[in-house]
Amino acid sequence: MSYETAKAAYAALGVDVDAAMARLQSVPVSLHCWQGDDVRGFDTDPSKPLTGGIQTTGNYPGRARTPEELMADIDEVLKLCPGTKKINLHASYAIFEDGDWADRDKLEPRHFARWVEFCKARGLGADFNPTFFSHPKCDPLTLSSPNEDTRRFWVEHGKACIRISQYLAEELGQPCTMNIWTGDGFKDIPADRMGPRQRYKASIDEILSEPYDFNKVKPCIESKVFGIGVEAYTVGSAEFSLTYAAMNKEKCIPLMDNGHYHPTEVVSDKIPALLAFFPEIALHITRPIRWDSDHVVRLDDETQEICKEIVRCGGLDGRVNIALDYFDASINRIAAWTVGFRSVQKAMLQALLTPNAAFKIMQDEGRFTELLVAQEESKTLPFGEIWAEYCRRAGVPEDGQWLAQVQAYERDVLSKRV
Ligand code: RNT
Ligand code: ZN
């Protein structure tokens, strides 16, 4: 089937394929830098384990070990993915020139100048994250620690990150979401659940007292249900994080990671719930298998449903900040990044190609039999042809054409990293 025939099949349902492609092309999706090096970063000893309840598994050869390697790898991914990208950085990816190392409470914008240069040369925006894990000052708590010295250190880190986010936003001329997530919690039943939450609340208040322009810096509060080694109690639970964001709407927004809820809860359903109250929200799109396993995102039902809600709720008009968050160390990392990014683009294009207005009328008029049939039949529309055309227009390889490029890069570059 040709692209023109496929386009006509959508037009028959009232869907404008060209408008859908143009819309998608303009929406930024934040590509997480941490898939490239198993979340290690450059500011601590890379042989030390990842902490904070998150874990990468696998030791596929070829992870990036330096800023140069990570940037080269990101460039490969950018060449293979359609759509508008931002780069999502963590504070631990600071780049220290000539022994100019600084601890996390002393980080400065200049430690991210090389990333600004990287983004400017490619016309990219950037998002940012303070790194409250994998560091000797995790005791193991950070912003909720009862040790005032520890808590202060992490508050100073958060403030430094606000300044860096403002710098990134100003240099790159695009807003910067700055996500606050900590792995603070306990392995076993705590004796005091309230104290850590009160300290966490005070710490976020202190971080957000650092001056910033809320049009440029969007601090986010990410909730979580549990992590590895912190199974019994999470300080930044769903209720804590959402309530914090709701009571501080003028200075931060909530962030939902779809790996951070009980298994029968779905973030797709939470998107309209939150957008009924918040002008803006943020998402981490990931794929949890039985827990927050951060598998590579696939074109699965929930990813498709999340994208449908983003589209239907007006999320593409700047109300939903979309980022990816996964890390698989068991397969080629460039392919992992690329499959996940392309899957989200596919899910979003499918959502834009859904006859949403017609379906809504069926629902509102109570025509549920018709709705069920129409929803099911829309699944076999000739989407592949439209996706291929979208890739061609973006100047990136179609499905079936990109993996060979990754394999060549693995042969010529990644396999030499020993
Ligand atoms: C962890 C959170 C968090 C991290 C990144 C690296 O469970 O999802 O967002 O994955 O900040
Ligand atoms: Zn996340």
Write the layout of secondary structure elements.
Layout: H1 3-11, H2 17-25, E1 28-32, H3 67-80, E2 84-90, H4 113-122, E3 125-129, H5 148-172, E4 176-180, E5 185-186, H6 194-208, E6 217-222, E7 233-234, H7 238-247, E8 253-257, H8 267-275, E9 281-285, E10 287-289, E11 291-295, H9 301-312, E12 320-324, H10 333-352, H11 356-364, H12 368-378, H13 383-394, H14 403-412
Descriptive overview:
There is one protein chain. The protein has a single domain, classed as TIM Barrel. It has helices at 3-11, 17-25, 67-80, 113-122, 148-172, 194-208, 238-247, 267-275, 301-312, 333-352, 356-364, 368-378, 383-394, 403-412; strands at 28-32, 84-90, 125-129, 176-180, 185-186, 217-222, 233-234, 253-257, 281-285, 287-289, 291-295, 320-324. The protein has an 8-stranded parallel beta sheet with strand order 3-2-1-12-9-8-6-4. The chain has a two-stranded antiparallel ribbon with strand order 5-7. A two-stranded antiparallel sheet has the order 10-11. The protein is built from 14 helices and 12 strands. The longest helix is centred in the middle third of the chain and has 25 residues, at 148-172. The radius of gyration is 21 Å and the shape is globular. Strand 1, helix 3 and strand 2 (84-90) form a beta-alpha-beta unit. With 418 residues, it is of the alpha/beta class.
